Amino acid sequence: MAAPLPPNATIGIVGGGQLGRMSAMAAARLGYRCHILTPEEDSPASQVSARTFLGDYEDQALLRAFAESVDVVTFEFENVSAEGLDLLQSIRPVRPSPNVLRISQDRVVEKTFLNDAGVATASWLEIKSRAALHAAVARVGLPGLLKTTRGGYDGKGQAMLRSVCDLNDMWEEMAPKPLILEALVKFEREISVIVARGLDGRAVAFDPVENRHRDGILDLTLAPAPITPETAANATRVALKVADALDLVGVLAVEMFVLADGGVLVNEIAPRPHNSGHWTIDACPASQFEMHIRAVAGLPLPPAVRHSDAVMKNLVGPEEVAQWPAILGTPGLVPHLYGKAEARPGRKMGHVTTLYPLGTLSVD
Ligand code: AMP
């Protein structure tokens, strides 16, 4: 196994958003510096990092210079081309490996991987043509969800299909193709489990949390999720199984649906720190960001325990960020802003965490 990165080493982060910002802040506390690769000037991550390589993710010369300037490369943004990933890996270790990113970039590859690993998902079919869409509807049934296989996030790139009359219109509207059709799951709650897995293959998991969305964007995370110990144990087992199957090095978020019988179906995986893990910064001795940096740097992983229960509220768009002065003036709220200059509707500007004594969070 490779030796741990020594203090003062440099970690390269692909992507300049808030996940990179909070990772770089965790890295700084462990004595590392970060270089950021991003097309965005004055990005949230650049503001707290030693150096930024500004330009396109597909610019080979830029990728090369970025990789040569660091000791190890990681990601907060997954959609770099396969060629770009291979180039980075030819120069420095990339953690998690490009193979993990390739799996998470494409819903067909992701769901095939999960199902092959014995992990249950909603039933789904790949759709490459209008005729295939009609055939899939006959097999999966309606209502269903049509999703683009690549590039979707925060509920973008998906549409509800309720009637066969919508089929032709939907096929025209959705881009980029191909698509998948997924059965609509009648879930009780949406949960996620954040797993960290080190270079030595040892893994830890934070307790499952519940995620509540508004307009397709995460609004609240409740830690811990109000689920039975059996469901929590099952969800954790599933998440650890996925991390092992991926041979992950880093942090992985596994989003799941909880069914009425307590069973879980995996919806999506993200091999990076995740919005539903932001509560760990304030409620845990080691946050998801510290876990990620530790794993990427080859350091040991501490237990993924929390000292408090927590509710994380995202601050999305101009209306919610306008509450900033009130948040700052309210005792007990832990505020986080991401340094974004412009508050566009739907844009995640920051979040606020409320802590509760361990074991006291009660929600309906
Ligand atoms: P995704 O883009 O796959 O993360 O989905 C975004 C949101 O859409 C999820 O958080 C769920 O609320 C909802 N959703 C996605 N897939 C399904 C499904 N098969 N059944 C019911 N709801 C879904």
List the helices and strands and how they pair.
Elements: E1 10-14, H1 18-29, E2 33-38, E3 51-54, H2 60-68, E4 72-75, H3 82-91, H4 98-105, H5 107-116, E5 124-127, H6 130-140, E6 144-148, E7 158-161, H7 167-173, E8 179-183, E9 189-197, E10 203-205, E11 209-214, E12 217-223, H8 229-246, E13 250-258, E14 264-270, H9 280-283, H10 288-297, E15 308-316, H11 317-321, H12 324-328, E16 333-337, E17 348-357
Parallel strand pairs: 1-2, 1-4, 2-3
Antiparallel strand pairs: 5-8, 6-7, 6-8, 9-10, 9-11, 9-13, 11-12, 12-15, 13-14, 15-17, 16-17
Would you give an account of this structure?
This protein has 364 residues and is an alpha+beta fold. The chain has 3 domains: 10-94, Rossmann fold (3-Layer(aba) Sandwich); 123-183, ATP-grasp fold, A domain (Dna Ligase, domain 1, 2-Layer Sandwich), CATH 3.30.1490.20; 189-356, 2-Layer Sandwich (D-amino Acid Aminotransferase, Chain A, domain 1), CATH 3.30.470.20. Helix content is 30%, strand content 28%. It is built from 12 helices and 17 strands. It has helices at 18-29, 60-68, 82-91, 98-105, 107-116, 130-140, 167-173, 229-246, 280-283, 288-297, 317-321, 324-328; strands at residues 10-14, 33-38, 51-54, 72-75, 124-127, 144-148, 158-161, 179-183, 189-197, 203-205, 209-214, 217-223, 250-258, 264-270, 308-316, 333-337, 348-357. It is globular. The model has no long low-confidence stretch (mean pLDDT 94). The structure holds adenosine monophosphate.
